[in-house]
Amino acid sequence: MFLQRYLAPVLLLTVQIYKARSCHEFTDLDLSDAIIGTDVKVNLLLYTRENATCATLLSHANLSTHPHFNLSRPSIFVIHGYRPTGSPPVWLRDLTEVLLNRSDSNIIVVDWNHGAANVNYFKSVENTHKTADNLTAFIKAMKDNGASLSSIHMIGISLGAHISGFVGANLNGAIGRITGLDPAGPTFTGKPPDARLDPTDAQFVDVLHTDIDSLGFRKPLGHIDFYPNGGTDQPGCPKTILSGGSYLKCDHQRSVFLFLESLNQRCVSRAFPCSSYEEFLDGNCINCDRFGAAGCPIFGYDITAWKDVLLELYQTKVYFTTNEQSPFCRTNYKVEVMIWNKKVRWGYLTVKLYGDGGEEAVATIDHKQLEFKKYTVTSLLGQFDKEISSVKKVSLKFSTGNVLKPTYKLRILRVRLTSLEQKHRPLCRYDVLLEENKEVTFKPISCEESNF
After folding, report:
1. Which residues contact 48 (CB under 8 A, 6 or more apart)?
2. What pLDDT was estimated at residue 3?
3. Which InterPro entries does the protein's record reference (predicted)?
4. How confident is the model at residue 113 (pLDDT cuts 50, 70, 90)?
């Protein structure tokens, strides 16, 4: 009894120490390592539902030594980008957790921090090819041991997106899917397809662009390319250099957080095909007929539901907008306004939707001054900050932004709101008088198709 009492804590401590030693962590370097420069060393950290919080370091030489590594399951490779300070990515644990929640897969974090950590960005770019060669050899070993290349999904962030492309090209495009999250732009812009990510690198390539005017790649790279908020200046990110490092990385890093939210399924972001962001904001690109019954594609992890039609279209460029913080997704309505003022009116419109219990959603249509003409339908895209499942009331506010000029009135003959997300009947209201900068609230009614 004496020995049992005192040996039990010792044994428990021994087990905990062994467990701690057997769990492998992402390489944590610091700025001094980046200043000196690092050579390529690739660690492959395996997470599965059996070891969701305790990574196993995979052997490149002997895949059979890892009981959790079941090659009959799909495999998802997560490949980070440039690490100028050597620190681990802040999003890494969250991404592995939500991927495992959605899919019973082998989640393989590609830790190439030795190689990515370097104040000399051009050296890190050079190291992407060495990292890709390392991964190619590992995936070939997986194939030799029974894995299907079509069941492999590579998620590459920044430089990691191009590494995914190099691996895919090495394997003749046989990989099932590559997701590029804001692929790096510097040194890759203007390069031919074999020197960057492109649609032929996998059976399906989906790409998100969030920082095309700085760290990201501007032009389309996949079968479908998403441009949230036009691909630049993400809402909630700092606008000036006075904010420090966040100003440089926030837009670029937002790509990961948007993809994370698509995995969480808190809400969805529907994207619309368009020739430009301006045309999208003008409401000229809300036709989704080309995608069939599924409608316009929803951004993120589940985009494969549109895979067949997107492959037929080959390259599709789509836009959507987001909120400043999570939940990022917005709800879209077509807003049609007909006035009976004698003279043309120019201005902006704010629309609010009210649900049960005081729930409220707002759409401010102010990307440019809108033109309203007598007996002419002005079609607008209203992007609301949340979804209201059952709209009870609506409010409108008209403004011109002119401080020194007289105030105007907008005499609305009819306003019509059509949800682009739900199959609800459009909502209407007739004969509404809007005085400038004054909000008017009313109960909408179901539109009658015979009206106007």
Report:
1. 68, 69, 70, 73, 100, 105, 106, 107
2. 41
3. AB_hydrolase_fold, Lipase, Lipase_LIPH, Lipase_N, TAG_lipase
4. very high
